[in-house]
Amino acid sequence: MHIASPYLLFIGDATDQFAIKMARGVADWRPELCIGEYSIDGCTVTTGLEKLDIRQAATRGAKSFVLGFANSGGVLDKKWLPYILEALDNGMDIVSGLHDKLSDFPEVAAKAKAVNRQLLDIRHPKAEFITGTGVKRSGKRLLTVGTDCSVGKMYTSLSLEKSMKKAGIDVDFRATGQCGILIAGTGVAIDCVISDFLSGASESLSPDNSEDHWDIIEGQGSLSHPAFAGVSLGLLHGSQPDALVICHDLNRDHMRGLPQSQVPSIEETIKLNLEAAKLTNPNVRVAGIAVNTSSVSVEEGKTICARLSEQFSLPCVDPVRDSADSIVAALV
Amino acid sequence: MHIASPYLLFIGDATDQFAIKMARGVADWRPELCIGEYSIDGCTVTTGLEKLDIRQAATRGAKSFVLGFANSGGVLDKKWLPYILEALDNGMDIVSGLHDKLSDFPEVAAKAKAVNRQLLDIRHPKAEFITGTGVKRSGKRLLTVGTDCSVGKMYTSLSLEKSMKKAGIDVDFRATGQCGILIAGTGVAIDCVISDFLSGASESLSPDNSEDHWDIIEGQGSLSHPAFAGVSLGLLHGSQPDALVICHDLNRDHMRGLPQSQVPSIEETIKLNLEAAKLTNPNVRVAGIAVNTSSVSVEEGKTICARLSEQFSLPCVDPVRDSADSIVAALV
Prior knowledge:
Chains A, B: It holds the Pfam family DUF1611. Two copies of one chain form a homodimer. The first copy, chain A, is 32% helix and 17% strand. Chain A is an alpha/beta fold and 332 residues long. The first copy, chain A, has two domains: 115 residues, Rossmann fold (3-Layer(aba) Sandwich); 192 residues, P-loop containing nucleotide triphosphate hydrolases (Rossmann fold, 3-Layer(aba) Sandwich). In chain A, β10, α10 and β11 form a beta-alpha-beta unit. The longest helix of chain A has 15 residues. At the A-B interface, α7 and α8 of A face α7 and α8 of B.
């Protein structure tokens, strides 16, 4: 699967920033892939990109119409179908990270066929995977792992990629979720893979490479999350990481979505992940800690990172407010 | 999903016992569900059940025609289609644990519709699952876990169920693989569930129950298997077991299918599983050890079990050669 760029990011009538997470992710990290955003009456948020309608975007060469909004359940509301059909008529592929499949809407499927354009349901892996082999692959790999879900593993991974590029390192960001796939233009939505192939799909995501090449693999879930630890473990084993970066969000009272579940400490998270990772790479080590400090002041954030850095004898940064340069410097 | 009994077990022209694992499992553990076996020219193995052809079995009331053979890849060979069509014509549902779906063969789908019979692809879960919640359920649960795949977790689970029934305990065997599903008549093939729903599907398998009721949950894979540990962890977290039984096969040089991977010790297996299980049930404990001693003499097997029992201060049995009575006695 390859998503053609440039993208027109469709954010509909969204009224909060969380609802346009997909669009924001790609606008933040790959503005060069985006030609603009398209919103309709009632929308109160923006990615900051230029506002264009479908015809304008097509004239400027837009190749993909990206559904940049999300909702719990991943439902594709029928009210968006006219916009999707218009984008197809204007020569664009359609990209969706929703659970509902574009191809399950007969009028969309028929139109895409008629105008010879693709429907890309990036949450639904199309590849045929094999079960994991555990066989060591060449090249180097870093996986971001978290104390919880949604603590900033994708942003940390992209920040690490940016720092590595700046340092002249041969590096690829490997996407494992729909937003990351949009950013990378390719990848595997690992939580949508049949369980039997979890490790195998994860292995296929970072194939053999040259010895000094780094894959920065986007982590998923958390080994301490009662709902998603299985996904995290399969990804960890298949990734065979040489290095882990521990991701943490200061502002978390309980595990995401589970009020009765405690967030583990950074120390526990390091221990759990190192022990599990050794099964497929005995030489794994922790390269650093990435903290989302957005809930406190910049100054307070810096103090917290400095304290954690001393406590664990590891580089510790907020990879969005600062950069991941210090983690990369210590790693290579 | 519910599989109607009695079954006619179709073993084709199989020539080794491993190839008819599905048929043997149900013949060994639920002979009362089986009306007989049906083999064709060239078959050199048997389940030990009475040999019947399709018409004879139908006359005696067979409700389901079970494909009792397996192969790597789970391919449904077209040479079996005439037998499947004949069974449909004789009023039976068709049950398959293969990867290939019965419903993907147009002539089979058409015939099943015409005669109003079901095609049950028991490896492909049909239920809609939700993601895990981690919320504690009432009743008691035991999960069998293994040092490796295919060490006897299903046979151990069934042996435990048998011992509990004998002791007058209210108990259900909960199947998580296609052979177990055939035996229980229901269940979820957990390694065929979409990864995101691993824990949620596992939770749904052993719902709230009365306080003194036990669910004996069939384990899958091993936390130490590089390909399948994610499945094992999701099942472990979703099962919320009060008790674990550690399953081990004496005759194992390396992890199944992976010559470079070492089999973990029983000690490591206990440690790994207890640590992980505590996330969703802090009161979890190990109830015993089940060893497949079939590679040594009965006497030697007994000596090994006695030694392990002493080493770990736990009941240790071969649940097929002996029974699981001592584990159940110590547990309740």
